[in-house]
Amino acid sequence: MALAGRLRLGKLPNVAISKRNILVHPPEPPLEIVFADPTNSVYIGRTKIFNAPFYWTHENVANPHIAVCGISGSGKSYFIKTFLLRAAFVWNSNALIIDWAGEYKDWVKQTGGKVVSLGRGSYLNLLDLGGMKPYDRIKQIMRTLELLTDISQYPEQRRLTEQAIEKTYLENKFRMDQREQKDELGKPILPPTLKDVVRVLTEQAQMGSYEFPAELENAIYRLRQFTKPGEDFFAQQSTVDLERLVTSGLVDLDLVGLPDETMRALAALTLLQFIKERMRISGAIEGARQSGLRLLIVLDEAWKIGKEDNSDAVMIVREGRKYNFGMIIASQNPTDISEAIFSNVGTTFILKVKFARFLDYLQSSLNFSPFMREEISRLGVGQAAVNMSFTTQTPYPSTFLLEKIEGEEPSKEYFLDLKEVLTEKQRRDISMARSVSFLKEDFRRKLRQFGLADDRIETLSKQFDKGNRRMDVISLVITLERYGVARRNISDFLKDSGVDDVTIINIFGKVDLKKSGGVGREISQVVLED
């Protein structure tokens, strides 16, 4: 320490030393790592500390797969859309979005891509081979049924179902150990369907000779849920060209028309199985790291198939690198992503994360510092931390911060003013936020999930735009309730936007007071559920 032109020794705490960059390496990789060749990489944004341009490439990470974590409205879908557009421009990559909630279909149409809507006129035959041998396809079908139903608990029903599927292939003159199936004239043979499987089992039951008739009836009942008229989306001949799904540029597989989560998961797993087989048939690519990505598969909030360790999503993550296939898997809840996937992705983008338990999981999985955890807990909309699994051991940190994800167009944020509902104590707290923000497209997607018609969504968007993209929270809640949105859904939306429970209770109290004409006590009976 310097004092009156003289040096004097003194003691400094570790915290003070750690803040002096001259003594410690800053939490950011060097420029040669974040600034890759722009002709062979995807621009994401600028780093927070040195403001260096960050170009993502799969050449210096363990594999091309990406995980994206962040609450609703944090910018996940905005990042994914930007990434897909730039990957198509740089590498001519194809992209298949397995669209659970119909979130991407409007954007895909606007960008000139193709939308395939299952449940709305498009069918996918579960017994299509997709270039596989029948024996291999049967194994995949049975694994799918084990993931989505309780058939694994009933070995006899499993055996009966597997035998019936094999019999339908044989009835259609399929050669069980061959990929290519053609008749005597060289024409492709149509595969059987689940309706044929149910027919085979039903005929067996009608014969009355099977010693366990209850097992047979239960096997029939399980499959009939997929063959009922109006719900036979996987029990008719395919109208979907599987080859074109993965070679036609940007394609959105819209699953919102399917009636439930099981049907959506069945569609997604079937597509992943076909993709995995096509990946293997196409073979590994020499010099794969220098030749871009042939296909990007997007799974957003697909927890039902992303959480299971034996899902085909896990298999693609483990093998995709050598075939130049990449997967982008996104979720609000990082624990919904299988550890087998999480431990195999080359890059993780962490956007705004709400709960401490999610930060605990991410910190233990990715091993970033307490300093980085604190920075992540304060991220705003569009800001992110990036964790990269480098191919070699490095002396610099693998997790660093981005100032903002920079998309093709500036992301449009909406703001909710909270000043009217803050308590006196909250108003005196200078750190207390007076407003919360969320992306326009995420807001519109949420309204669709609440069941609002497009005209009402447009009306709400115009109200925000007229107010310079701002609206007071009381007016918004009153409007949503007038449109029939349940208070529980409104509460969940406010929580996801970063509003705490006490403020939410106060919001509903103010709403009730205003709706009653301002007469009475400011009390609202509100129950907030996890």
Written description of the protein model:
Helix 6 packs across helix 7 (194-207), helix 6 crosses helix 8 (213-224) and helix 7 (194-207) runs antiparallel to helix 8 (213-224). The two termini are 53 Å apart. The protein is an alpha/beta fold and 530 residues long. 39% of the residues are buried. The strands form 3 sheets. It has an 11-stranded mixed β-sheet. The model is unreliable at 285-290 and 519-530 (pLDDT under 50). Among the domains are: 63-72 and 91-124 and 238-337, P-loop containing nucleotide triphosphate hydrolases (Rossmann fold); 134-224, no CATH class; 413-515, no CATH class. It is built from 21 helices and 16 strands. It has helices at 14-18, 31-34, 76-91, 105-110, 134-148, 155-171, 194-207, 213-224, 242-245, 261-282, 303-306, 312-323, 339-342, 356-366, 370-377, 424-428, 440-449, 454-466, 473-482, 487-496, 501-515, and strands at 2-3, 6-7, 42-47, 53-56, 66-69, 94-99, 114-117, 250-254, 295-300, 325-331, 347-350, 384-388, 399-405, 413-417, 435-439, 470-472.
